Automatic annotation (TrEMBL):
GO terms, molecular function: ATP binding; protein serine/threonine kinase activity
GO biological process: cell surface receptor signaling pathway
Highest taxon listed in the record's lineage: Eukaryota
SUPFAM superfamilies per UniProt: Protein kinase-like (PK-like)
Database matches in Gene3D superfamilies: Phosphorylase Kinase, domain 1 (3.30.200.20), Transferase(Phosphotransferase) domain 1 (1.10.510.10)
Protein name: Protein kinase domain-containing protein
Record PANTHER family: PROTEIN KINASE DOMAIN-CONTAINING PROTEIN, WALL-ASSOCIATED RECEPTOR KINASE-LIKE 21
Binding site for ATP: K72
Region annotation (Disordered) ranges: 339-367
Family to which the UniProt record says this protein belongs: Belongs to the protein kinase superfamily.
One protein family per Pfam: PK_Tyr_Ser-Thr
Subcellular location, record wording: Membrane
Length: 367
């Protein structure tokens, strides 16, 4: 009786209705508490993958042998249940290589539980901010940035209903055994209104990555994700933590990076490993990051433009490396080609996991 009460309280009928048109989803979407208890050996502490103020994540194996991560929140505001269930129904239909797959949810507990595919290799944040002088190779960092850009471009412009992630950061980029990136944590995501220039919402995000215009106005657009991506790109280039970095003048990471870029002095802040491995294209990538963090959202590029530009740079680098290998084999000198054509300034590329709970900001705005 209690399970049924929670199921109804958590709008189980609404979810059933939303997924009823897709029988293949409906069969798997609603997962019983009994199934999750079996999958986790009754939520054994040994199965915990991590946790914090908002809840605990467990590793489990479903009866169909899928290895999953089960997010068991501590609390969920009742008025958000309808939105939560609606998002679950939509996200369950997203199928993208670089977005964590959502298998379903359990509604038979007081707070609904989400069930995701299990990603084995931790977060980008954990890989990036290790002790010692070396971290992920630069080519891997660039590849992860491109995959993340692809997933965001997909969410913004290709998904059935466009979605704003709203909390892009290195801690929400999971990596598998081959370092393929998977964008995770859609708990605060929102749909992009098709007939509006933005959406007024309660501000949510993470200090250091949060779009300042969104913070001050409460107006959410896909360009807020672009800003957060730009901050993450700076983090990849510097190995500095956006939520805690302060320079000698009291500026945060974004402001300091922008100042040094304008002065042609990026070497003062770049990760030495990036300077050693990045070649002559680092400044081009820095220019993309600076374009993404423009104060005015309309002056930022789209994620599709960012994706294409980063891919162009990667293709150039790979082409040069191939030529250099060929020259080594043949014993001949081959001049490096000039910069490849990318997206012009006119198209929007003009110049210009945190584990700490208090990094998450929340501020209410009237509708």
């Amino acid at each position: 009786m209690l399970k049924q009460k929670f199921f109804e309280q958590n709008r189980g009928q609404l979810l059933q209705q939303l997924v009823s048109q897709r029988a293949d989803i409906a069969e798997k979407m609603i997962i019983t508490l009994e199934e999750l208890e079996k999958a986790t050996n009754n939520f054994d502490k040994a199965r915990e993958l991590g946790g914090g103020g908002h809840g605990t994540v467990y590793k489990g194996i479903l009866s169909d042998l899928h290895v999953v991560a089960i997010k068991k929140p501590k609390i969920l505001v009742q008025k958000e249940i309808d939105e939560f269930i609606n998002e679950v129904a939509i996200l369950s239909q997203i199928n993208h290589t670089n977005v964590v797959k959502l298998y379903g949810c359990c509604l038979e507990t007081e707070v609904p539980m989400l069930v995701y595919e299990f990603i084995s290799n931790g977060t980008l944040y954990e890989h990036l901010h290790v002790e010692g002088p070396s971290s992920l190779p630069w080519d891997k960092r660039l590849h992860i940035a491109i995959e993340t850009a692809k997933s965001l471009a997909y969410l913004h412009s290709t998904a059935l209903i466009p979605i704003i992630h709203r909390d892009i950061k290195s801690a929400n980029i999971l990596l598998d055994d081959t370092l393929t990136s998977k964008v995770a944590d859609f708990g605060s995501s929102r749909y992009i209104p098709l007939d509006k220039s933005g959406l007024t919402t309660m501000v949510q995000g993470t200090l250091g990555y949060l779009d300042p215009m969104y913070f001050y106005t409460g107006r959410l657009t896909e360009k807020s994700d672009v800003y957060s991506f730009g901050v993450m790109l700076i983090e990849l280039m510097t190995r500095k933590k956006p939520f805690s970095y302060i320079d000698s003048q009291g500026d945060g990471l974004v402001a300091h990076f922008s100042t040094l870029f304008a002065a042609g002095s990026l070497f003062q802040i770049l990760d030495p490993q990036v300077m050693n491995e990045g070649g002559n294209k680092i400044e081009d990538i820095a220019a993309i990051a600076v374009a993404c963090i423009e104060l005015r959202g309309e002056e930022r590029p789209t994620m599709r433009q960012v994706e294409l530009r980063l891919e162009g740079i990667q293709s150039h680098v790979e082409h040069v490396e191939a030529l250099m290998e060929e020259s080594d084999v043949n014993g001949t000198m081959i001049n490096s080609p000039g910069t490849i054509d990318g997206i012009s300034d006119q198209e929007g590329l003009s110049s210009q996991y945190s584990t700490e709970e208090d990094c998450t900001l929340s501020k209410s705005y009237p509708l």
